Amino acid sequence: GCKEEHAALARVIMADNARRNPHxxxxxxxxxxxxxxxxxxxxxxxxxxxxxTSCGACALVLANKDRARxxxxxxxxxxxxxxxxxxxxxxxxxxxxxxxxxxxxxxxAAKIYRRNGxxxxxxxxxxxxxxxxxxxxLFPWMEYFGICEKxxxxxxxxxxxxxxxxxxxxxxxxGVVSTNPIGASGVIRVAExxxxxxxxxxxxxxxxxxxxxxxxxxxxxxxIVMLYLCKNL
Length: 233
Known about the structure:
alpha+beta; two-stranded antiparallel sheet; 8 helices; globular
């Protein structure tokens, strides 16, 4: 049931978010027609589906529990971290296609969820800053992270529940498709998630009460670093 229009809508939503982010690279007023009319790279992936090449940097200040409480008025806690790597994969148009066995994202997510008692990710996690290299990649990513059942991600995008004001805000910063200083892109996901938990997202602040977040870095042969962040310990 997933159509090109759904991937275009996902990109439009990310563009709408980026225009509310003063640090975003691309701040384009896109329509689904704009995306669908952009040139084909490898069908069905078009130019406006893909992440740009950006210049930029990002830094995180990390400390142990005692130092963090003294140094920061609003510390955000890294509750858990998991890394997984999948050497056998099929990479096509910014998206890794399924091969026998679980993908790296599924492995990392399962471990994080099990250790932290997360049984319903879509409800238990308030903000998602996940490394989606193209708007097409968002659909399998949402399913690998357990946000929805397999084959159902497009339905959530169609309902636009992934918007900043929605039930499952994903990429309120505009995501990697809006800003991609390669090397810093993964760190930006963590910083943006932390800003959301601190309530310092400005115009891109999600409307729901944000107390938990998932941030990820991704690349190479389906390699992922996944962080579970919390407002309170």
